[in-house]
Amino acid sequence: MSTTSTRPTPATGFPGGTILGYPRIGRRRELKKAVESFWAGRTDAVDLEVAAGALRRETARRLVDLGLNPDDGSVPGAFSYYDQVLDVVALLGAVPERFRDLLDDADGSLELDGYFTVARGRGEDAPLEMTKWFDTNYHYLVPEISETTPVSFADHRIVREYAEAKEAGVTTRPVLVGPVTFLALSKAADEAGEGFHPLDRLDDVVAAYADLLRALAAVGVPWVQLDEPALVTDSLDVPAERLHAAIASAYRTLATDLATATDDTASEDSAGVRPAILLTAPFGGLGDDGLAVLAGTDVDAIAIDLVKGAVPAGPVPGLEDKTLVAGVVDGHNVWRADLAAKLDVVESLRGLGAGALAVGTSTSLLHVPHDVEDEVFDQQAAGTTLDPRLRDWLAFADQKVGEVATLARALADGRESVADALAASSAAVASRATAEGVVVPAVRDRAAALTDADFARGPYAERAAAQAARLDLPPLPTTTIGSFPQTPEIRKARAAWTKGELSDADYSAAMREEIGRVVTLQEELGLDVLVHGEPERNDMVQYFAEQLDGFAVTANGWVQSYGSRCVRPPILWGDVQRPAPITVEWSAYTASLTAKPVKGMLTGPVTILAWSFVRDDQPLGDTANQVGLALRDEIADLEAAGIGIVQVDEPALRELLPLRRADQPAYLDWSVGSFRLATSGVAPATQVHTHLCYSEFGEVIGAIDGLDADVTSVEAARSRMEIVPELADAGYSRGIGPGVYDIHSPRVPSSDEVTELLTLAVKAIDPALVWVNPDCGLKTRRYAEVEPALAHLVAAAREVRATL
Which of 139, 244, 744, 792 is catalytic? Predict the structure, then answer.
């Protein structure tokens, strides 16, 4: 009985190079606009699918134009309407019990309406929890899995998208999160039995993936990409031994058992046939053990991150029949590569014994903007402020594809074949190293003169007494995190001012008018501590970057944060200092409108770094201290202006946490230190707040305590106060504001729901420490949602306050 195989030989594995993914929002955020139009009811599902299809085809053609091979699966098909983890939930029909009615009765699939409902919630049904994707600023939706969660090959969208690209003349490589990472990142659903872990469902999930691979093989897919970044971290609640065993088991089924087909089975719906598998491990180093586990499987290619990971020490058994994709082009930052140095790294892999070498990116390019060429320098045009010198130092997604293609050509044909490209790369790297502003002696001298006293405040008990006397707040004081909805009128005024169509005086008047409305609303609602609503801020990081030396901002450098939410991360290229006050005018004006306490609002040093593209030529801790000193100056000016509460937001504190536990103490030391540097210059009676969100806080409870903020607000509504008992168990003894209103969903929580959450909080921790606030800022919400939600928040606080 003969056998047939669909596996390509290693030599056919991406000889022209490949990338692990590409931005999916569109060069001008076309997908965001199409999705939000669908949500608003202005278009229907057919319209959305047409717009998405056009974007997918445009992306595929663009990648071919940039140098990827259109015929061998080098072009990734990594599209998502909202989130790649939610896509696997839809693929499997693995929705929580509260959303089961959304599944099609015939095949268990989700229509687009249902897909978005799982992401955004409905009525009393909360959406899936959201948290950070490894060490990036992308947020994924956390699946909820139990023993009874339906799991099958329910959604054929990925098959249809391959056929769509093929019809357009491009053979794409379907991309999805691998089964082990999907389950390792999932949480046990509420109905799960004691001791259950989502990985207990591995066999069921792998069986569904096997059905998917058969379906892909049946339509001629040559390669599929399965992403398994769970292997690069030891910070999950799964021991490495179990992860490795899960990988071996999963890919024994998906790679070995499906690799060949007998004559008897080949005609039975392609049973036993699969595409070649590219297994990726981005965001860090696999380590020798992790790479050995992957090499021991029968996958056809392995992509390793050689930006954050190291080159393996020697030959790796099992690689001889595989393509090794060297992820040397940084998919997570925007600096132009030193191509000669990257080529050295690729060539050093020849000794590992791989069947073939290919060049790739370290991660998906989802995390960088589309194209540096969109940033045209024109001092007279709005927003186009990137200096040509800086542009020459940068590589966005399109440029990174070009770098991959250049390195692949050099690998195949020798360095002389790309001599001009190598020379241009070296010149750009040298220019950046010596440019004015990269090193500012005065900034370096100030940082070098810091002492331990600059990082410390007085005892908390003394501060708390002084603040209570000054602020005179009731138990369970109510407040918001900072921003209020950015209405179309606010955005239009800011756009007109940016274009020079609105004078400085008129713009200031418009913002003051909006601040007055926000103050009046807060007083009518009965909030205890007010904010100015931040109408003047385009983004909580970009706003500060525009006014600090050492930063640049882009006009079109959009990056997806979550769902349809996009941001334009600033570029931190030089030494940082504050040339003038930034927020004082707006906070002082707000305080003049009310007798209630007003919070000054700043973004913290770690979050400014995490949500920017940061220079890679010095330790992050040094850069964080420079930002901390700039914020210290701003806080001093707010205090001098009479502002009694200053909030320094650090939602990204956990985001930069290294994925390996051994590297975490050093990070926590400098990250906590930069916050304390920023906030330790104030008097005891000035209350310092901070805010954290999008995180699994259990891993950084010690750091939260170490920040030494007087009040810390945290995201807690979706997880139903999960963090509060953890804080209590850790002995946390300062003010805590666990969020009671999930602002990442359009649903309005009832007073009873907020009361229930707040009751959970005061049962777990001393009520004298508890504040009442939303999970995060209100910028992305509408007033139609915000006003009733905040009214319910205040009512719940009063109800629970009366029981104390």
Answer: 744
